[in-house]
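Aim 2, interim progress: modelling of the adenosine-5'-triphosphate-bound target.
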Amino acid sequence: MSPGYINNKNPKYLEIDGKFYGGILVIDYYREYNEIIFKNLINTNVNMNISIFYEKQDTYRTIKDLTYFIGNVGVDLKSGNTNREDIDIAAYSYNDAKFIRKEMQVNNEELYFLYTYINIISDSEKEMERNLNKIEGILQASGMMTRKANFRQEQLYFSCLPLMINQNDVKNVCRRNILSNGLIATYPFISSTICDEEGIFIGTNIYNNSMILVDRFNKEKYKNANMCIFGTSGAGKSFYTKLLILRYRILGLEQYIIDPERGATCCTLKRCA
Ligand SMILES: Nc1ncnc2c1ncn2[C@@H]1O[C@H](COP(=O)(O)OP(=O)(O)OP(=O)(O)O)[C@@H](O)[C@H]1O
Ligand SMILES: [Mg+2]
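Predicted structure of the complex, ligand included:
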């Protein structure tokens, strides 16, 4: 399980067992967003780990802090000095704070901290650079502000492993608050792939490289187990059919083959029989 070597000399990436790992931090989001924000990201075919942390905040304490803040800034705003440089920002955050307090008290919403990290895995330095730029472009087009995790690659790599460790060095840059209603927009399990629990491997989705597993004999899901394969001559239809036969064979299914051309199908079967 553990890698043979880790090269962390370059601040722009980690090199682990010949693979290059480059990180992206999502540091800000649109103020208001109604769609699934990671939709375009998940539908790309770039190899990456996405790590999303949610931290629920204590409602009572949050409301107390908000009230304190609203009181303070409210007095500031009323003091009459409208010439201050940050007067617009103060007014904005004052209204935001009031909005959050209202949502929490009236609509029973909860406040969360949200952290998003992305670790891109590539075979070469050049490919990694290209993928990093591609993903950053996609994120920015979806209304997120990003930053490359230079000098923090190791911390980001750890945060993207399934260890539930949110490293402090990346945490402080990425923290954003979000109400439970907004959390819906970060739902990540949206890829439109087919994955039946007892299915056999059919192939990969060309759009996002996800595996497609189909259980043709699942009567609850499919009307019947018929299947049809299209392809130009020599594309690999017969080869593919034989593969499927083999895979079903491994599961112990009894199979009958009718082949007018007496093709290699019979040989394949005899061999594994
Ligand atoms: N996934 C694959 N990997 C490697 N070789 C493959 C693969 N699929 C097909 N081939 C090779 O491609 C060639 C053509 O494949 P195949 O005979 O299955 O094509 P076909 O679509 O059935 O053609 P036809 O329409 O003429 O019957 C074969 O030599 C086969 O070994
Ligand atoms: Mg054929």
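Residues 14 and 21 are 5 Å apart (CA to CA). Residues 200-272 form one domain.
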